[in-house]
Every structure is written in C-alpha cells, then in structure tokens.
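Figure 6 in text form: structure in, sequence out.
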C-alpha cells in the first residue's frame, strides 16, 4: 500500500487546503477525469473551482484509495458505475457546491 499511502496523503493535503469536512468533497474514478469534473462544473456542483485529479498506476490502486476516502473518511462519491473491465486509473476529487444534489456519471464504459 506504499503508493496508496502517498496518494492518500496528497488528497488529504488537498482537502485541508480547500477546507471543509470530508463529506463536503466528492471522489470518483474515471478513464478521463476531466469529463466528470467538466460535467460537475457545468451543473454547478463544484464549489470555487476546487477540483483535481491524480493518475495512478492501476485500477486497483485508484479503487483502493477511493474506497479509503468513501469508507473511512466519509467522503461523498459513488463507485457503483465503474466499468467492469477495471480500466479506470485516475481519481478525481472536487469540493461540492452547497446545492449539490446528484453525482456525475463516472467511468463510462
């Protein structure tokens, strides 16, 4: 979990810098992380343009990190739509706007 710990530390630092609680943030997986961030921005779900993405070495690493933030930290997100081929290697994270209602599509097949 060496690589996962490094990525977790990066994301935790980003959240601290952006402020708020873990539940104020949304994390997901994508083949192209710009697509869900663009969609969320278009729907005014991103607060103050606070978003980033991290490319990982594998789908397993990306999913492990996302699971940590979802299960341990209470970050919002949904991995139920990730593709069955397990090709998503990028994590994206953004601070949700106050009027956040639904999640964007993640990792389209």
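Output sequence:
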């Amino acid at each position: 979990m060496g690589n996962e710990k490094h990525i977790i530390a990066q994301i935790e630092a980003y959240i601290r810098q952006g402020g708020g609680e873990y539940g104020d943030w949304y994390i997901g997986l994508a083949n192209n992380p710009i697509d869900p961030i663009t969609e969320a921005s278009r729907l005014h779900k991103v607060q103050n343009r606070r978003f980033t993405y991290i490319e990982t070495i594998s789908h397993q690493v990306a999913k492990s990190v996302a699971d940590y933030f979802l299960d341990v930290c209470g970050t919002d997100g949904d991995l139920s739509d990730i593709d069955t081929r397990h090709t998503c290697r990028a994590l994206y994270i953004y601070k949700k706007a106050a009027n956040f209602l639904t999640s964007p599509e993640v990792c389209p097949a």
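Caption detail: Residues 2-96 form one domain.
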